[in-house]
Amino acid sequence: MKKLCYLVVSTIALGAMATPATAAEFMFDFSPSTRLFGPAVSGSGVFTTSDTPTTVEGQTAFSIISIRGLVNGSAIVAPNTGTTYGNYFITGSGFLDGVGTRFFTASGIDVRFFQQSNTGLYRVNTFGAFGSSSNVNAKSSPIAAAVPEPTTWMLMLLGMAGIGFSMRRKKDTTLRVRYA
């Protein structure tokens, strides 16, 4: 029984180490609807958020911890956390708060993406070689949770096999008499 307890505890500990930390991911995309000035801007990608909720503008929000995707064909670089922009993903009807988020692309474009409540649209301002501003149609949707990693499955199956093996193996308790 003692061995069984050690086996169960060690399997749980190994499983906990192999399980990756979870974070929510949300796809987004936007396309120009009204160009205010400069070239049209379009983009798509994924926001990865923390699992710790907070309240922003009276709504449940999650801190954006990374962004990946493309803006006008250039790869998005992680958000600059040193800015005064909120970098929050909101679970309400608008998925970015009023101050929105700021990030850069590999080609050096400074992108500011935020909701404009007075128009009901989002706005994308870019700064760089060609500055622009557009009101955009933007949408967001959650990405389904991923299937567990193969190592997680392996450790779980090993643990179950070990428990099954140890329960099946019984000590021989029959009384044997030896004649001299």
Topology:
Layout: H1 2-18, E1 24-37, E2 43-56, E3 59-71, E4 74-77, E5 88-90, E6 101-105, E7 110-116, E8 121-127, E9 132-142, H2 150-168
Antiparallel strand pairs: 1-2, 1-9, 2-3, 3-4, 3-5, 4-6, 6-7, 7-8, 8-9
Keywords:
180 residues, alpha+beta, 8-stranded antiparallel barrel, 2 helices, 20% helix
What would you say this structure looks like, in words?
With 180 residues, this protein is of the alpha+beta class. 20% of the residues lie in helices and 43% in strands. It has two helices and nine strands, in the order αβββββββββα. It has helices spanning 2-18, 150-168, and strands at residues 24-37, 43-56, 59-71, 74-77, 88-90, 101-105, 110-116, 121-127, 132-142. It has an eight-stranded antiparallel β-barrel. The longest helix is centred in the C-terminal third of the chain and has 19 residues, at 150-168. The radius of gyration is 27 Å and the shape is elongated. The chain starts with a helix and ends in a 12-residue tail after the last helix. Residues 16-21 have low confidence and may be disordered.
Quick overview:
It is built from 2 helices and 9 strands; from the N terminus they run H-E-E-E-E-E-E-E-E-E-H. It has 180 residues and is an alpha+beta fold.
Number of helices: 2
Rounded Rg: 27 Å
Q: What kind of sheet is the major sheet?
A: 8 strands, antiparallel, barrel
| Total strand segments | 9
Shape designation:
elongated
Structural class: alpha+beta
Main sheet strand line-up = 1-2-3-4-6-7-8-9
Instruction: Give the proportion of residues in helices.
Output: 10-25%
Tell me the fraction of residues in β-strands, as a range.
Answer: 35-45%
First-to-last CA distance: 35 Å
Question: How confident overall, as mean pLDDT?
Answer: 76
Order of helices and strands: HEEEEEEEEEH
- Ranges where pLDDT stays below 50 over 5 or more residues in a row are 16-21
